[in-house]
Design goal:
With 168 residues, the chain is of the alpha+beta class. The chain contains six helices and nine strands; from the N terminus they run ββαβααβαβαββββα. It has a single domain, classed as Glutaredoxin, CATH 3.40.30.10. Helices cover 30% and strands 30% of the residues. This is Glutathione-dependent peroxiredoxin.
């Protein structure tokens, strides 16, 4: 499992772009994790699935609501990672109104999730291999805070906890 002090996995995530801008084309675009995190402070959180109850009602909305506070605390970007395809993450981004606040990054084949060791096997529930729920503060590609949830919990990976850590 990834730990504090470790570097983020050298993988590629995918982001769906609804509008063209900053050299990004419409549709799914690859995001090289190492390049995207270089020189930045990232508030990264991962969820078991897009459009799932806790993720949609609490996890993403918390980070969207606190986006300006994260910026004021020195966070350059907020990333939401989920084992879903880029089209689902794009639709979820529209639903959650994350544009300009949270980057919704798809880990379609779970490469990032497997590399972190933070997998959640929901095969018997019809969801397959997913990401565990967690949050982390990343500086220049290195993990400086890590908050991993226990099974079925949502107590330490929320926006308030990570924001307090970013301010410290």
């Amino acid at each position: 499992m990834i730990n504090i002090g470790d570097t983020l996995p050298a993988t590629t995530l995918v982001e769906f772009m609804d509008t063209e801008g900053n050299g990004c084309s419409l549709g799914p675009n690859p995001v090289n994790v190492a390049e995207a995190a270089a020189g930045k402070t990232i508030a990264l959180f991962a969820v078991p699935g897009a459009f799932t109850p806790t993720c949609s009602a609490q996890h993403v909305p918390g980070f969207v609501a606190k986006a300006d506070e994260f910026k004021a605390a020195g966070v350059d970007e907020i990333w939401c990672v989920s084992v879903n395809d880029a089209f689902v993450m794009g639709a979820w981004a529209r639903d959650q109104k994350t544009v300009g606040k949270v980057r919704m990054l798809a880990d379609g084949d779970a490469a990032f999730t497997k590399a972190t060791g933070l997998t959640l096997d929901l095969t018997g529930k019809g969801l397959g291999l997913r990401s565990n729920r967690y949050s982390m503060l990343v500086k220049d590609g290195k993990v400086v805070q890590l908050n991993v949830e226990g099974p079925g919990q949502f107590t330490v990976s929320d926006a308030d906890t990570l924001l307090a850590q970013a301010r410290a």
